[in-house]
Amino acid sequence: MSKQKRYFLTEDEIPRQWYNIAADMPVKPAPMLDPKTKQPVTVEQLSEIFCVECAKQELNVTDRWIDIPDEVREMYKYYRSTPLVRAYGLEKALDTPAHIYFKNESVSPVGSHKLNSALAQAWYCKQEGLTNVTTETGAGQWGTALSYASNLFGLNAAVYQVKISYEQKPYRRSMMQLFGAQVTPSPSMSTRAGKDILTANPNHQGSLGTAISEAVELARMTPEKCKYALGSTMSHVSLHQTVIGLEAEKQMEMAGDYPDIIVACFGGGSNFSGLSFPFMRHNFLDGAKTKFIAAEPASCPKMTQGVFEYDFGDEAGYTPLIKMYTLGHKFTPANIHAGGLRYHGAGAIVSQLYHDGMMEAADIPQIESFDAASLFAKAEGIIPAPESGHAIAAVIREAIKCREAGESKTILFNLTGHGLLDMAAYDQYLRGNLVNYQFTK
Ligand SMILES: *Cc1c(COP(=O)(O)O)cnc(C)c1O
After folding, report:
1. CA-closest residue to ligand 1 atom 13
2. Which of 82, 102, 113, 415 is the best mutation target for the ligand 1 pocket, counting ligand atoms within 8 Å of the beta carbon and taking the most?
3. Percent of the chain topping pLDDT 90
4. Contact in structure between 347 and 238 (CB atoms under 8 Å)
5. Atom 3, ligand 1: which residue's CA is nearest?
6. Which of 88, 134, 141, 239 is least enclosed, having the fewest CB within 10 Å?
7. Any idea what DSSP says for residue 384?
8. Helical packing angle, 270-286 and 235-255, nearest 10°
């Protein structure tokens, strides 16, 4: 195994503000629309289900910098700065002249980047006098992050977890419960929506759609006490994630390199946005020429195969209409192991940026992502989340191009999470049981 070089910031250097790229975009994202009136939604409408501060951030396209509350920054210090790592081992394994770096978000206490936004959302809910938050989760990464954050700030979290995941992937459920959350398999008898679904089909296995319907219904039942929180897609979630890229900017400076290429895996776009946007502002404002690549699963290729149009952000049709690259909110992706990437659409900001040619996308077949993750595990000693494996695969493609062209480019990617709770998936990979899913409309 080759040496690794890791770069850290002091506590004082942890960012004090998030970066709001909407303020600098040449073309602003299209407004979100109320599905009934087709008029742009207001903060008042959004704050019927989201906390007020998140609703304001969601619609803010003018302020370039938004203060990180001190209390949130204190909690960031539990695991931030996250290391920026020069991946000498991977460079050597690929025999490439490229310089490869990764930002290791897997060191957060819940094992992924999702905590960066969960802490902010839980804090705002607490500030606004709420006592409860609710959300849905599939495999459980987002639910775990919100449970952890709610516990820190003294809120009760109610998480609706897709029933089949609740039963088949018990460890993240246990994590949520350890942090004090009430976890309910969805569909459940605790809401009107759940009862209706179960009455029609008592054996319903649940889906993100059923879980969202239940979480939103719970928030609407007691709006003065409880709000709904989302872990991806929305612009305020991307905003919170920019702490990743802002740190990386300083750390790359310490390393004496600047990224020619930035790669991140892509579910709804929050970690991609978080790493990329602070660097993209130098493309907009200072003539930098960094190339940005979103690595999406070939089975759920919303960017390369989707259409750019107004659609719902969720399967159940509760969110406002968002102008996004989408495969359609009723599209059910194949059951790939990278559960966090099984999402039909891309957030409004990334969609506009992709439309305007500011970024690219690469489609990664499932087996290629596990081959890449496995190579990375051997070369760097970290088992990546299957989601992150998609970014690594796209990095490997670029690093091989560098080798063939004899070019020493600098590549930076996001290691969004570790795969220690995904060993069942790796087991399937090692047995040769994985398949590639072909996207069909
Ligand atoms: C949720 C998740 C993702 C994908 O979500 P984005 O919002 O696109 O970032 C990627 N990696 C991990 C580990 C996740 O939990």
Report:
1. 417
2. 113
3. 88
4. yes
5. 340
6. 88
7. B
8. 60
The answer to whether the beta carbons of residues 106 and 112 sit under 8 Å apart is yes
Kindly tell me if the per-residue pLDDT of 278 is higher than 80. yes
Q: What is the SS3 assignment for 80?
A: coil
What span, in angstroms and rounded, lies between the C-alpha atoms of 410 and 88? 12
Which amino acid belongs to residue 293? I
CA distances from 15 to 58, 113, 142, 251, 264 (A): 20, 16, 23, 12, 21
237: CA distance to ligand 1 center in Å? 12
Q: Which atom of ligand 1 is nearest to the CA of 341?
A: 4
What pLDDT score does 373 carry?
98
CA distance 122 to 104: 23
**Who lines ligand 1 at CB under 6 A?**
112, 114, 141, 232, 265-272, 340-341, 385, 387-388, 416-417
Nearest ligand 1 atom to the CA of 385 is 13
Residue range 24-36: average pLDDT?
96
Per-residue confidence (pLDDT) for residue 323, from 0 to 100: 97
Distance between CA 288 and CA 24 in Å, rounded?
A: 14
Q: Which residues fall within 8 angstroms of residue 243, CB to CB, at 6 or more apart?
A: 14, 15, 18, 68, 76, 80, 116, 274
pLDDT for position 192: 93
Ligand 1, atom 8: nearest CA belongs to which residue? 267
Which atom of ligand 1 is nearest to 388's Cα? 11
- In terms of C-beta density within 10 A (0-12 exposed, 13-18 middle, 19 or more buried), how is residue 242 classed? buried
